[in-house]
Probable zinc-ribbon domain-containing protein
Amino acid sequence: MADKTLVCKDCGKEFIFTEGEQAFYKEKGFENEPLRCPECRKARKQQRRNNENRSFRK
């Protein structure tokens, strides 16, 4: 395996999908490559957490 350059579907920025990340994805049984760069993944995860916390407060 070699590092791959992918394009984030949210921000359009190129990011590297490293050999190590590819091995991790394969080990976990993930079949698809990431669609978002690490920054957008982090932001999306935080947004989901915030939405979950709001639903618990109601």
Q: What stands out?
A: The longest strand covers residues 4-7. Strands lie at 4-7, 14-17.
